[in-house]
Amino acid sequence: MLAALCWLRANAGQHRYLREIEAPGVDTKFVATHRDLLSALLPAARIDATHSRAAGFAPRYGFAEPRPPIRMRVAEGFAGLDGVSEIGLRAEETTRLRVSVQRVLVIENEVTYLSAPIPPESVVIWGAGYSVGRLGRIPWVRDGPGRLALGRSRHPWLRHAQPPSRPGPADRVDPDGSRDPPRTSRAVGS
């Protein structure tokens, strides 16, 4: 326990991965098992107040965590890429792309994301719930002419971007960007 505590104190806030722990007899499973006790023993000054306890031990004490790439399905020729239909980039790399798109579709469900047609001059992004907030920091997504979210995202930048009559999850976006009219159901026997 003492070896773990010493290493954590020395490396907290350095944005190293917990997997890099070099304390004798200590590994990430040890830290995970004893994180409550370690949290109580680490100085409060080491806590990154921007991360709640629920966010997890690693970010709260300034340790790095792997971030999944932002997955995008793209039209032919997107960013000069020919023959590529899907790309995954780190968020910071995505912000550096210099592209012009007419429409960004953010879809939260992975199967819907994989099966959605890609309108011309558009990008379909898998919002994946947890990454929607990261998308708002990408200039060409945030400031582009058209954003449309399919799913139940309550993220503020998406809410403000949606047109007043946004489609529900069952509506379909055709390759030309048009939407089918809302589907209605009829009760059996009526």
Automatic annotation (TrEMBL):
Basic and acidic residues bias: start-end ranges: 169-183
Segments for region (Disordered): 153-190
DUF3322 domain sequence ranges: 2-42
Stored InterPro entries: DUF3322, JetD_C
Occurrences of domain Wadjet protein JetD C-terminal (ranges): 62-143
Protein name per UniProt: Uncharacterized protein
Species of provenance: Nostocoides vanveenii
